[in-house]
Amino acid sequence: MKKMLIQLKSIYYRPQTQQFVVDVLRTLLSLLIALILGFIVILLTSDQPFDTIRIFLLSPLSDPYTFGMVITQSVPLIFTGIAVCLMVKGGQFNMIGEGAFFAGAFIGAVVAAKFSLPWFLSPFIAMLVAAIVMGIIGYVPAKLKASLKVDEFVSSLMLNFVIFWVIMYLFNNVFFDPEYSSLATPYLEDGQRLPFLNADNEVSISIIIALITALAAYLFLYRTKWGFAIRTTGSNVHYAKYLGINVKRVILIVQIVGAMVAAFGGATFLLGNSYRFTWKALPNYGFDGFIVAIMAFVHPLLVPFAAFLMGFLRVGASEMARLSDVPNEIVYIIQALIILFVGGQAFLVRFKRNRLKKAIEKEQLLKVEVRHD
Hints:
Layout: H1 2-12, H2 16-45, H3 49-58, H4 64-89, H5 97-114, H6 121-148, H7 152-173, E1 196-198, E2 203-204, H8 206-223, H9 225-235, H10 237-242, H11 247-273, H12 285-295, H13 303-323, H14 328-372
Antiparallel strand pairs: 1-2
Helix pairs in contact: 1-14, 2-3, 2-14, 3-13, 4-8, 4-11, 4-12, 4-13, 5-6, 5-7, 5-11, 5-12, 6-7, 6-11, 8-9, 8-11, 9-11, 12-14, 13-14
């Protein structure tokens, strides 16, 4: 046992730079294993496996428009990944990001369509309203956890479906365009949307807003007193209470802010890449945010890189299904393998470190008790 603790200490107390390199290498190795297994599936199912693999790996870089799709696919993953980082850093495994992102997109589309203000004001107000509304709704599971100790994972997961069906009721009966051929919100004029950075590949300013959000989340978590309180509470609740941190307030704030970021991201993504809200199902971006956050080691500055990687793989898989003889089901298998290996190894590494940390703290506590005796 003592020998194991010494070994664990050497792992746990690695220098931060060295640990970061090790984490990146682990992630890349897991990604490589997942891709190899995916390629084996392609070899067994495709008549032209090497061309299919080439399409999967190179098609996202084949032209500006397809590469723009990679950037566009990264935007929602950055927002939901940041929302997850904020909540997990505070020790809260809240799943409201899925419903918040969906509701944020709907609210953003409806509110933006109601205003005809000068450039950027309409979408900005819509994004802000979406964030505020979902912040109020996000108060529900946060308050249940802080006051009644109701598990936030369960309550927020169920709340997602309440949010979804309320939005669908409003969508079907109140906020829809009767003149449009299918169910959709009113058309958004150019002044009611976020502008394109490049009209040729349809990349909007939403990517810049997403990157600014990631930077703001980092500064909030690592450069403010509230960030310190959140990280301390997430790391050790008892130690946070010992320091005089209001743990209940931290639990409330971190979950509310997480819901607001996800909703803000939903509105930003919709207003930057669509002219109407037409979603009729949850888009799964909120759930994918957990995978992105795990790949980024729950660090806001690494979330954009993890989101870009996920976007790259998804666009490559989509192009592979379109241009080769590989059916969509095989594409889903490959995506599942990537998520399983990359997300799974990162989760296990974090779980192991937390266990090692507790073992080391327990050993140190025993030493203190022995000295007092």
